[in-house]
Amino acid sequence: MRVMEVEILEERADSLRFILRNSFPAFANALRRGMLADVPVMAIEDAIFLENTSVMYDEILAHRLGLVPLKTDLDAYVPREECDCKSELGCAKCTASFVLEAEATDRTITVYSNDLKAATEIVPTSDKIPIVKLAPGQKVKLEAYARLGRGSEHAKWQAASVAAYRYMPKVTLRPENLSNPEDVIKCCPTRVYASDSTRKIFIKNELDCILCNACVEQAVPSDPKKGPPIEIKGDETTFLFHIESTGALPPKRILREAGNILIKKAETMTALVGAEQK
Ligand SMILES: [Zn+2]
Q1: What's the 8 CA to ligand 1 centre distance in angstroms?
Q2: How many angstroms separate the alpha carbon of residue 118 from the centre of ligand 1?
Q3: pLDDT in tens, 147-176
Q4: Alpha-carbon torsion (45, 48, 51, 53), positive or negative
Q5: Rounded-to-integer distance, Cα 69 and Cα 100, Å
Q6: C-alpha 43 – ligand 1 centre gap (Å)
Q7: What distance in Å separates the CA atoms of residue 21 and residue 28, rounded to the nearest whole number?
Q8: How far is the CA of 68 from the centre of ligand 1 (A)?
Q9: What is the Cα–Cα distance from 195 to 188, expressed in whole angstroms?
Q10: Residue 17 Cα to chain centre, angstroms
Q11: Which single residue of 68, 113, 124, 170 has CA 20 to 30 Å from 222?
Q12: Per DSSP, what are the bridge partners of residue 193?
């Protein structure tokens, strides 16, 4: 098999698009699942309520706190189950703590994620996530503890909000045998085709093709004997990936971690098989 290659198409602070070449569907899917379910990130797991006179039950409020994405420093923390503290609420190596204290006096207020005061450098990815509304006289006072976890355990620990791929599209266009280029240009939902002063139709954005085959169904050949005017194929060795991060980790780090997790799993497997042979 040829060596796999990765080409980054677009990298932003919270999203990544890349092409994976010389691979196969099982590997692409393992990578996708790893990014969604296995890459650890921080999320609030324990909350201790000292006071809560809001309209929300402690449990609902705790659930909402858990869903606030936190900027994660993977190198500074260990998973609690691997930590030597063996403590229920963790220690500084495995746990980041917060306090939240808010009270509405003369008007209704909204408590936002930036009201979570962090004791460490682990902070919410956004300041403007609403947590609860408080009417005059209502008060919330709590402590919250975040730890590393995985998406397979609970969606609040999912590093990637999106990790998806599709086969690399290969569009073959024979304009000389196409009688209705305007219809084809119009029917494509992702605007793969275009026309200009010299050409009635040409392929403008092949990578945007989502293999929906709308153009193939729409295309009417000038001469049916000459074969189809448009053919669409997906290359099963090349994958177009799109990743979006919750903000907890940079998308490239999510990809690297998923790769490392696959390596570890393979090594574990090899060791197990090796031990069997002895
Ligand atoms: Zn610990």
Answers
A1: 37
A2: 18
A3: 999 999 999 999 999 999 999 999 999 999
A4: positive
A5: 16
A6: 15
A7: 10
A8: 22
A9: 13
A10: 11
A11: 170
A12: 203
